[in-house]
TrEMBL record:
<keyword id="KW-0460">Magnesium</keyword>
<dbReference type="InterPro" id="IPR015376">
    <property type="entry name" value="Znr_NADH_PPase"/>
</dbReference>
<dbReference type="Pfam" id="PF00293">
    <property type="entry name" value="NUDIX"/>
</dbReference>
<dbReference type="GO" id="GO:0006742">
    <property type="term" value="P:NADP+ catabolic process"/>
</dbReference>
<dbReference type="InterPro" id="IPR020476">
    <property type="entry name" value="Nudix_hydrolase"/>
</dbReference>
<dbReference type="InterPro" id="IPR000086">
    <property type="entry name" value="NUDIX_hydrolase_dom"/>
</dbReference>
<dbReference type="InterPro" id="IPR015797">
    <property type="entry name" value="NUDIX_hydrolase-like_dom_sf"/>
</dbReference>
<dbReference type="GO" id="GO:0019677">
    <property type="term" value="P:NAD+ catabolic process"/>
</dbReference>
<keyword id="KW-0378">Hydrolase</keyword>
<dbReference type="GO" id="GO:0035529">
    <property type="term" value="F:NADH pyrophosphatase activity"/>
</dbReference>
<keyword id="KW-0479">Metal-binding</keyword>
<dbReference type="InterPro" id="IPR020084">
    <property type="entry name" value="NUDIX_hydrolase_CS"/>
</dbReference>
<protein>
    <recommendedName>
        <fullName>NAD(+) diphosphatase</fullName>
        <ecNumber>3.6.1.22</ecNumber>
    </recommendedName>
</protein>
<dbReference type="GO" id="GO:0046872">
    <property type="term" value="F:metal ion binding"/>
</dbReference>
<dbReference type="InterPro" id="IPR049734">
    <property type="entry name" value="NudC-like_C"/>
</dbReference>
<dbReference type="Pfam" id="PF09297">
    <property type="entry name" value="Zn_ribbon_NUD"/>
</dbReference>
<dbReference type="GO" id="GO:0005829">
    <property type="term" value="C:cytosol"/>
</dbReference>
């Protein structure tokens, strides 16, 4: 059992980020690989990512500089945002869906390569490649939404090979944002509390989750979010695992807690929440439940529910 995006590659090699000569040499190295990203979608092909080199025409629309991700066993790794390319045919309605099933094929892509939704590909990718794609997606999203200085309001520019933005007026430095989120299994005897948010795929239920507020511990955030969303009070809160979640820029802290009451009072954040017995959760897990689908494979919620079903937590 595993979940996506959590693996670490050989080295992020942060010293290269501010070393122009090292970066230039790397981009002239035939072993260096560049991952094209289009509007958050990695370039996919075969059973993994579809990589490019600096001379490949698919990078003609790439925004400069490239994002330096670091090194793995095969050499240096970069990512390039080619969102400036516009496909001849584009299903904009699909792009706005919770899960975008559309694909985009660049005219200069290798045969069989395409830009696809990372949520759908995360469990098919090799573990390190999934981590590369998630990091690039999160960083490019941060660049897209932080083009102006929070100190003076003037434009910022890309710096440190994609790991900083610097204000062009006051020189303030801005660093990539990661939003901390708690995601929790709430148990009561042989039952598990699952909920669904508005706009989720039909019948999909998952663990409750919410952002950690300033001044909160993980435990305090778990108790507050569960109480706010369902009216359930919890105790015996324990940490389980964490997962980077690049949709758009979160770090998920997985926890488990015991409920002190079972009456559910929904707030407007959730469409529904319900207690499911272990047997019902197992039916959902196997796809046999008539009205509940499990959390997506590869998510930390899916992993935690599997651990609970196996009696490991």
């Amino acid at each position: 059992m595993r979940f996506a995006f959590g693996d670490a590659w050989q080295s992020r090699n942060a010293t290269y980020r501010t070393d122009p000569s090292a970066l230039s040499a790397s981009l002239n190295d035939p072993q260096t690989r560049i991952l094209p990203i289009w509007r958050g979608k990695p370039h996919l092909g075969g059973d993994g990512l579809s990589w490019a080199t600096v001379t490949d025409p698919i990078l003609a629309h790439a925004r400069q500089p490239y994002l330096y991700l670091g090194q793995d066993g095969n050499g240096d790794v970069f990512a390039a945002d080619i969102s400036g390319w516009e496909p001849d045919v584009l299903d904009r309605a699909a792009l706005a869906m919770f899960t975008d099933t559309s694909i985009q094929i660049h005219p200069d892509a290798p045969k069989g390569a395409y830009f696809g939704e990372l949520r759908l590909a995360m469990m098919q990718l090799p573990r390190i490649e999934a981590a590369f794609a998630a990091t690039a997606r999160a960083l490019f999203n941060w660049h897209r939404t932080h083009r102006f200085c929070s100190a003076c309001g003037q434009p910022t520019q890309n710096a440190a090979s994609g790991w900083e933005r610097v204000c062009t007026t006051c020189a303030a430095k801005h660093f990539p944002r990661t939003d901390p989120v708690v995601i929790m299994l709430v148990t009561h005897g042989n039952s598990l509390l699952l909920g669904r948010s508005h706009g989720w795929p039909e019948r999909m239920y998952s663990a409750l989750a919410g952002f950690i507020e300033p001044g909160e511990t993980l435990e305090a955030a778990v108790a507050r979010e569960v109480s706010e969303e369902t009216g359930i009070q919890v105790r015996d809160i324990r940490y389980m695992a964490s997962q980077p979640w690049p949709f758009p820029n979160s770090l998920m802290f997985g926890c488990i807690a015991q409920a002190q009451n079972t009456d559910i009072t929904l707030d407007d954040e959730l469409e529904d929440a319900q207690w499911l017995s272990r047997e019902e959760v197992l039916l959902a897990w196997t796809g046999a439940h008539p009205s509940v689908l499990p959390a997506r494979k590869g998510s930390i919620a899916h992993h935690m529910i599997g651990q609970w079903l196996a009696g490991r937590v």
